[in-house]
Amino acid sequence: MGILGWIGASLVFRLFGQYILVGPGLAYVVALVVGGVAASAVALLAARLFCEPGKSARFAAGVVMPGLLGDAAATLAFARVFPEIPPEYDVLFAAMMLWGYGVILAVLILFGDKVVRT
Q1: DSSP assignment, residue 64?
Q2: Cα→Cα distances 118→64, 88, 102, Å
Q3: Residue ranges of the alpha helices (H) in the chain?
Q4: Do 66 and 6 contact (CB within 8 A), yes or no?
Q5: CB-side neighbour CA atoms (13 Å) of 103
Q6: In this structure, are residues 103 and 42 in contact, taking their beta carbons and an 8 Å threshold?
Q7: pLDDT band, very low/low/confident/very high, at 9 (cuts 50, 70, 90)
Q8: Radius of gyration for the chain, computed over Cα atoms and rounded to the nearest angstrom
Q9: Spatial contact of 88 and 20, defined as CB atoms under 8 Å apart
Q10: For an engineered disulfide with 18, which of 48, 62, 84, 95 has Cβ 3.0 to 4.6 Å away?
Q11: From CA 96, how far away is CA 87, in angstroms rounded?
C-alpha cells in the first residue's frame, strides 16, 4: 500500500510539481494544508478498506515508511527526478513530504482504529 502511494505521489510531482511547488509563501502553506487534508482522507479510506482491527499503527507505518525512504532518495537526486521543478525547491519538496507523512501517520494512529471495519 505504501509503495503504491509513494509511486502515485511521485508521478504527480513529476508531472505537475512545477504548479504545486510555487515557492515559499501563502500558496505553499495552502498547498501544505490542502495536501495534508487530502492525504489524511485517502489514508483513512485505505485503512477502512484494507486494515485489520487493532493494527492501525502497523498499517500506518506500512503506509508511511516506503514514502519516507523513497522521498529521501528522490530529494538527493532532485534535479534528475523532477526536472521541471527548480533545483533550489528541493528543500520545499522535502519539507512538504515530511509534513504529509507526519499528518498521515498522526491521523492513522489517532483515528485509524475508529474507521476500521470489524
Answers
A1: H
A2: 23, 47, 26
A3: 2-20, 26-50, 56-76, 78-81, 90-115
A4: yes
A5: 19
A6: no
A7: confident
A8: 15
A9: no
A10: 84
A11: 15
